[in-house]
Design a protein that fits this description.
Length: 112
């Protein structure tokens, strides 16, 4: 569950010090719960070396709901995406970028 307390875990209020660990826990939970299904679906839609059906379950089925959840709570949205401190914004960007790369790697066996 995403909360301001969890987001700030291990740091001062508004630092988002817990964002990396929160996203890592989410990626692990998603991998354990949905990894085999997403991997199988990815294999089903692969039609050839240069031809694939344009189905992106990772984006539409995993990332969009996570991003929507992060944006639903105004305090969490502001803390992550508009902290007002450049170093925190950069750290949050890196955390989210790393999360997406690791999620794709864990779920699909490759980075996208």
């Amino acid at each position: 569950k995403v909360s301001m307390g969890r987001l700030d875990e291990g740091g001062s209020r508004g630092e988002c010090a817990g964002l990396f660990s929160l996203l890592d826990e989410m990626a692990t939970a998603i991998q354990q719960t949905y990894g085999p299904v997403l991997s199988l679906a990815e294999d089903m839609f692969f039609v050839g070396a240069n031809d694939t059906v344009d189905v992106d379950l990772l984006t539409a089925g995993v990332w969009v709901p996570i991003a929507t959840a992060l944006m639903a709570d105004t305090a969490i949205k502001m803390a992550i995406f508009s902290p007002g401190i450049a170093s925190i914004l950069q750290a949050n960007y890196v955390a989210l970028d790393t999360f997406l790369a690791e999620l794709a790697s864990r779920l699909l066996g490759r980075s996208e």
